[in-house]
Structure formats: structure tokens, C-alpha cells
Amino acid sequence: MITPSAETAAEQLLLSMDGIEKRFPGVHALRGVDLELRRGEVLALLGENGAGKSTLIKVLGGAHLPDSGNILIDGDNAGISSPQDAQQAGIAVIYQEFNLVPSLSAAENIFLGQERTTAGFLRHRDETRRALQLFARIGVHVDPTARCRDLSVAQQQVVEIAKALLLDARIIVMDEPSATLTPQEVEKLFIIIRELKAQGLGVIYISHRLEEIFEVADRVLVLRDGMRVDCRPIDRVSRDGLIERMVGRKLENEFPRRRTEIGEERLVVKNLQRGDAVRGVSFHVRRGEILGVTGLVGAGRTEMARLVFGADERDAGAIELDGKQLRIHSPREAIRNGICLLAEDRKAQGLVLGRSAKENFALPNLGALSSWGVLLLRHENALWNRLVDSLRINAYPGQLARNLSGGNQQKVVLAKWLQRNCEVIFFDEPTRGIDVGAKYEIYVLIQELAAQGKSIIMISSELPEILGMSDRIVVLHEGRITGEITDVEHATQEQVMQLAVG
Length: 502
Description:
Shape: globular
Number of domains: 3
Radius of gyration: 25 Å
Number of helices: 19
Number of strands: 24
Oligomer: single chain
Low-confidence stretches: 1-8
Strand order of the largest sheet: 6-9-10-3-11-12
CATH class of the largest domain: Alpha Beta
CATH superfamily of the largest domain: P-loop containing nucleotide triphosphate hydrolases
CATH architecture of the largest domain: 3-Layer(aba) Sandwich
Distance between the termini: 61 Å
């Protein structure tokens, strides 16, 4: 006998993925995974890098064919074997890297491939009007005539959502949608998602930021090693419980405990300036100290780090290391003086993605790894293997940097700087796009470096991370330091935010 509640749940079921299997050479990516999505629901899809999230979404979007299993929409077999099939079935996948043409306007991107013509001429006015209607449907305004390259990341995301609505999508997948958004833009995104829910659409939301999951999701599905390990309403799971299910072990603390002696001042920066981006910034960091730097996006955090590293030319300011004034006008000079930067965008600025992990490690160290212009392969392999062991890098010989997980990419960037014996290390958003288990490993490595006496400046927009890792915190707003927190143990996120908003 079917109960009334079971009948209601069945009527609401929009998508069902049953027993999805997918293998690649040497990898069993999905092991009989089930997924259910109801109308007007946000389903959070969680798991560490390599858990199978991306593969499952690519199966749903028609980019991968499953080895076995079924995809049902409204109870009927969807027959998805290509992205076109998925689109016709009402499925839209918005990837972290948007599928937009920067030189085209917002309206032109929305109607790309769906253009309407009269006597062979594009109906631009009609497209502009309909684009405005789509934006109004999700409660936002974007200039439909503006070129996408001139739009903010949040506005580009709205264009992607409007594209999905134009195609009558009923299922929208959002892959790390908040990765590059400000906190204010994330709140606006949540408002849009709630509006989509109210219209009966189903949303699959993928994110490494657990605080967002509790804010926006109705249910949460956890994958681990290609298998479904848990699925339940969000109000029946805790943050610690989610972490334990994702990593397959209990983390006693989200952040490792510190017992490091802090020594004398090492890096001292005075009156650093560059236009309106950095305006009279002064700070210091001591031996063995982790200095947290935070503030809203656009506050000048990254710009400040780039000035110290010599990546940008400063208008004014002095930099001292161990009491000696430095003349830094390029990254080469910074590195020579023992200062290094792990950039926020490690893929674009920290790695050569088409080269192997070992080659990326070797690039800034060729002088030490070669003799008379000849690379000493045995010496290179010995040093690389030592750092692979000490940093716990999971990469096989010759593996391309682009194919590494976010955590292992970050470790490769760190390895090349450690080989240069850098004593002052800037970590700019060190765990962005990294799953919770790998985050813990990065935190442990940062603390081990501090315990060795290195000075760490950690820039992060994640307040729990700043509060959990820092010995001291400085907060920036519009290019200026608005406050310093020394009693981090008793500080709150609200206290930090008050300084961040000026």
C-alpha cells in the first residue's frame, strides 16, 4: 500500500539517476550511484576531489555516457547520450568556467544558437526585450547590450542562468557557483536560487563551502570514492557530520591545534601605496607567526601581496627583512631575498598546466638542478621525491599539472618555493576550490612551516579559516588597514566583518 506521503514524494520527483556506473582506464569513477531531485528543491552534492561529483554531472549533462544505469525525468527514460539530448530534456549545467563569448553582448550570448530572424536579419530589439524578461524572472537587472567581458562575474553567472531559462530548463546544475563571488554577491545568488525553487525548478548545487550548504540546500547527497555514502535532509546533519562522511574519517578539529613559539619581527612593510588599490598599508610579521589578512573582495589584499612580491610596481613604501631594507622591483628580486607568493589563481599564475608536476617544480629551480646548462635528472628526481614525501603530494611521474586535484596543485606550487628556501611565504586564498580533507592537509603544512620558523602571511576571504589558523589578524577595507586583532582566540566573525566594512 502506498501512503499519501509516498504518493506526494513520487509526484514531486523530477529527476532520478539510478545505478550509474562509469569506468575510465584504471579508475572506477562511479559505483552504482543513485540521485533523486524533486521539483522546487535544492540538492547539495558534496564530496572530496575525486569523489565522482564531476563525472556524475557530466553523465547527467550528456558529456559522458554511463556504462550502466538509467536517467529518468518525470518517470520516463530521458535517453541522454549527448549534451544536445540533455538540453532538450530540460537540463542545464553551469560550470565554474562559464561558457560565454566575451566579445558578445549579454543578449547575444543568451540567444547564441537560438537566434530569431526576419527576412534573414537578426531581431536585436526582440532579443533585448526577451533578455530583460528573463532577467526580471529571476529578479535581477543586467544590461542586455553590455559585452560579457565588461560584466562582473556575478552578472555573467546571471547570463548563464538566463540562457538556461530560455531553453526551458527544469533542472539546473551549479558547479562551484560562489567560488569567485563576494559575500554580497553570494547572498544575491541565493535569492535567485530561491526564486528558481519557487518556480518549481530543481537545482543541484556543488560547493566546497559548507556554510553555504546549510544556507541554501534542502537535502544533501555525499559521494566518496565514486559511491553514494549518505543522503538526507539538511536539518538532519551537522557540519562535523558532513565532514566525517566526506573524508571517511573523523576530524577531531577542522583546524589543527598550534603550539608554535613566535620570535622576532622578520618582514616589516611601511606605508605601502599603489594608486587607490593600496593606500598607506603598514604591517609586520614575526618568525614562526601566521598573520591572517582578510577583507571584502576589492579591499586590496591581493594587490598588497603583489606589491611586496614585486609583481606590481609600488608608488611608495619600504620593505625590510630581518632589519635590512630591500629594493624589490620584480618577483625575481623577491625570490632572491627569500619572499615567495602562492597566487590566488594557481592555475593561471602558479602553474604551467600543460607540463608535468615535476617540471613545474623544476622551473624556478633550474639553476640548482643543472650544470653547464644540462639538467641533472638524478638530482632533480631526488629532490622532487623528497618533497613528494614531505608534502604528501599524490602525483605519479609525468602527470600533467592540470590533471591534479586542487590540493595537490597547491602542494606542487609550495614545493617549488620550498626548494628556493623561501623564509616569508604569502598564501593567497590557499584553500580555494579544495575539498575539506585536502584543506586540513594544507593547514597542517602551513603550521609545519611556521613551526620551522618561517613567516606566513595567509590571505583569505573565509572567516572561519582566518580565525582558525591565524596568530594575529589584520583587516583591510578599500586599500587601508582598518584594524588589527591580536586576541584571535576570542574574536568572532562579526568582529572581523565590522572592520571589513570600514
